[in-house]
Amino acid sequence: MASRSIIPLRAVEGEQTVRVVAPESGAPHAETAMSAVHGPAPLPANGKQFHIWTIGCQMNEADSAKVASLLQEVGYRQTASEDDADIVVLNSCVVRQSAEDKVAGKLGSLARLKRTRPETRIVLTGCMVTNQQEQLRKRFPHVDLFFDPSDFDRLGLVVPELARLEDDLAALPHYYAPAADGLEPAEGYRKGVTAYVPIIYGCNFLCSYCIVPYRRGRETSRPLAAIVREVERLVADGVREVTLLGQTVNAWGHDFAAKQELVTLLRAVDAIPGLDRLRYLTSHPMYMTDELFDVMADLPTLCEHLNLPVQAGDDTVLHRMRRRYTRDHWLERLQYARSRMPDLTVATDIIVGFPGETEEQFLQTYAMLDQARCEKVHLAMYSPRPGTLSARWEDDIPHAEKHRRHQVLEKLQERIGTEINERRLGSVTEVLVEGKNKGRWSGRSRGNTLVHVDVREDTDLLGKLVDVRITSATPWFLIGEAAGAPR
Ligand code: SF4
């Protein structure tokens, strides 16, 4: 077996340094009032505390957990006593009269609290709030905020630390304005017969660990016509494979006055005569629609490769990363994609040692990767980036522990890579040859796997498409011999 190949590089999506490890109720309404402690271990405090009182179904339980998590993200600590709290949240239920009476009784006791500590913010959410706010305001004037359970953003009205986060996005500049001034920004970079073409700059997501939106601004898409012109020029100049680039490449077109979707651009680029291969990276799981996968499956130039960062396999960690999807969403997207493209290869990104990540949460990531069986995993040990939200939290996982988790996932990926690549022995795969490596020609399959090709010394394969029969497999790359004339 060849020696281990771990390639240092920067993640395209976020700015954590990574190394590639690769081939290369409705439930019964419980009428028990609760002061449960929800969510992950508290993050470094901002000196403020919150208290949540929940009654009702499991949906209310879940909503309360989300409120707790939001407040903990911005440095609040949970307290079991409303008397110590800066914010008291009541999550109400009206499905039975007895539950509604309990909420009313609790609100009455909070009126007394508000008289003695007027600075305490009282918040009411849950079923009692929907469509009744005027009446509620008259009945409970000591409540500072009523919010519908579907509208968590309103919490920012009484939690300035949350409002600031949303303001961060609004304040981000557009660093690129190609559509506005009619100019085309600098072209992508080219290496032999492959080229990278930026199609969207910036990012609107504000993941809690990522500096990209602060450095590169809000999403700004290049116009379709400018991208097509650039690819046409590249193809006329001998480029055979183009990768469309963006931090969230599948948000392309969302910022146009008349919103467009990436599929429109993919169809236009695919139709350029002479282009052999088309790729795009990096995608955000929130924008991976069925239509996008259907188009990938149908367009002949689009390679069967998906770069879909997940970052963690635990929903609490994902929530604190502000990734806006769950583990199940990511897995379901993979399942759909593979149902449309059985040969699809998948790469993903993982951060280990995120603040507060418990061993159980890490093991969820392990189990998810074991289930997902990606061809490639970009692993990063968490490190705080000044200016981001998570940099305000304690970096509480010791470096040695981050390193251990990193190694555990490396080992897992080594096993998965071996299993995947050994199944390719004897198969024939198309390789676009990009150069020579230790006497062998090397290139990438449509699935983006590194393939070394054994041929006679005097054969020049540079820039050619070659069908290669796989004769040897490692966890990180394949070796094979030409099985047909290069083209
Ligand atoms: S989606 Fe998140 S991780 Fe990716 S660039 Fe945007 S803020 Fe960073």
TrEMBL record:
Name this polypeptide is given: tRNA-2-methylthio-N(6)-dimethylallyladenosine synthase
InterPro entries, alphabetized: Elp3/MiaA/NifB-like_rSAM, Methylthiotransferase, Methylthiotransferase_CS, Methylthiotransferase_N, Methylthiotransferase_N_sf, MiaB_methiolase, rSAM, rSAM_horseshoe
Subunit-structure text: Monomer.
Entry's localization field: Cytoplasm
Manner of cofactor binding, per the entry note: Binds 2 [4Fe-4S] clusters. One cluster is coordinated with 3 cysteines and an exchangeable S-adenosyl-L-methionine.
Radical SAM core domain: residues covered: 189-419
Chief localisation class: cytoplasm
Record-listed [4Fe-4S] cluster 1 binding positions: C57, C93, C127
Stretches assigned to the TRAM domain: 422-484
UniProt keywords, alphabetically: 4Fe-4S, Cytoplasm, Iron, Iron-sulfur, Metal-binding, S-adenosyl-L-methionine, Transferase, tRNA processing
Cofactor(s) the record lists: [4Fe-4S] cluster
Species, as recorded: uncultured Thermomicrobiales bacterium
SUPFAM superfamilies: Radical SAM enzymes (SSF102114)
GO-annotated cellular components: cytosol
EC numbers for this chain: 2.8.4.3
